[in-house]
Amino acid sequence: MLCAAVVMLVTVAAVVQLGLSRRRLNGRLDHVRQTALVSQGGAAIVEAPGLLERFGGFLAKGPLIGQAEMALIKGQLATAGFNRPGGPAYYVGLKAVLALTAVLADWIWLEAKTVPAPLLMTVGTLLAATLAGWRLPDMVLSRLAKRRRDAIERGLPDALDLLVICGEAGLGLDIAFERVAREMKHAHPELGSELAITAAEMRVLPDRFVALANMADRLKLETLRSLVATLSQTMRYGTPLGQALRVLANEMRRERLTKFEAKAARLPVLITLPMICFILPCVFIVVAGPAALDLINTLGSR
Questions:
Q1: Are residues 40 and 193 in contact, defined by beta-carbon separation less than 8 angstroms?
Q2: CA–CA separation, 52 vs 90, rounded Å?
Q3: How crowded is residue 258: how many other Cβ atoms within 10 Å of its Cβ?
Q4: Which of 5, 10, 88, 185 is deepest in the core (most CB within 10 A)?
């Protein structure tokens, strides 16, 4: 009985120690990311949480959000470039405030009407306003994340070329990432900030490929996953790094050119409907208008 109690106590202590070490590592990574962003020209983050962040943190602890939803929100914010430690709680608080504001505005509008609205319409509009206020930040965040991913994807081939130069100059992988981040700060600031964060994580994490995998998970780009796989295979099997990166950069440029060609091939289909609705009626008016006026004058003179 005593042995079982001792084993259970040791197990609980090990689990608690593992959780504390992971929490310390995550806190250290957040601090390193903020330092990297400040070095790239970003603004310093104030550590004191505001009212909105505290309100969002209170909601996140309840059954409405949950830890899984908070992890998903954190990933979406990281994809859009918002790496503030209290960002998920602030975002949840913002969504709740917007939902309450939409409900209040809709209620004021319904009360201001001279004719009272039916109960079903009142409940429906209030629910629609709540849903719109709650979902509006998600739509904006999704658009911002897509725009940032596109900007990063445009700069990846140039970054790979610079990585080839740094690798052939004898720089290590973390130093090469840091150097490329400084060079890309003005041409592609989004990519420069991500490379700076990855270089900072490489200096903290015991395995540098975990930092590369974190970058791929943050941005959710297949090209970055290909880059991570290429770098891991290169370091594991000793293949030439410069040659592998050159091939990957050329593949990215060809893929980008293929996307441009696909968009160009869709243009005739996309402009057909505007031509039918707006251009062809104008052409008919210009061509048939004088004849119609002459016909009207001729019939009117009889």
A1: yes
A2: 6
A3: 10
A4: 88
